[in-house]
Amino acid sequence: MISTFRPTHLLACLALSTPMLASANPILDGYKAEIKGSFTAAAGEKLYKTVGPNQLSCASCHTDSPKNAGKHAKTNKAIDPLAPSANPKRFTDAAQVEKWFKRNCNDALGRACTTQEKGDFMTYVLSVK
Ligand code: HEC
Predict the structure, then answer these.
(1) Is 90 near ligand 1, meaning CB less than 6 Å away?
(2) How many A from CA of 38 to the centre of ligand 1?
(3) What is residue 102's predicted lDDT score, i.e. its pLDDT?
C-alpha cells in the first residue's frame, strides 16, 4: 500500500501559509492584542457606511470605496485614498491613525470608536484591493 500522505508535507504547507495568516500591519496587531476576539471586514464595511446623528458616515468624506480619493463633506478639501492598496502611506503612523479615528468617529458617529470598531474598520480597509 502506497500512501501519498506524508506529515512532512503537511508541515511544509503550514510553514508556507502561516505568514499569510498573520496581519501585515503592526497597528492592527496592536488593536488585536487589546481585545479578546477577532475582527471582520464585513463589520468594518458596515461601520464605514453607517450614517450617524450628524447625517455623516465615513463614506461621506472617504467615498463609497476606500480606494477612491475623497473630499471633505464640509470643506471640500481633497482627501487621499484610505486603502493602502491605493495609498501605501495609510495605517503606518499609529499617532496619526489614532488622531483621525478620534476626530472622524466623533464627526460621523457622534462618539469615539471602540477598539473593536477600529480593528474591524482597518480589516475592511486593508482588505480592499
Ligand atoms: C467630515 C469628513 C470625514 C469623515 C466623515 C470621516 N473622515 Fe476620516 N479623514 C478625514 C480627513 C480630512 C482625514 C485626514 C486627511 C488625510 O489623511 O488625507 C481623514 C483620515 C482618516 C484616517 C487616517 C488614516 C491614516 O493612516 O492616515 C482614518 C483612520 C480615518 N480617516 C477613519 C475614518 C472613519 C473610521 C470614519 C467614519 C467613522 C471617517 N474617517 C469619517 C475626513 C473624514
Answers:
(1) yes
(2) 23
(3) 98
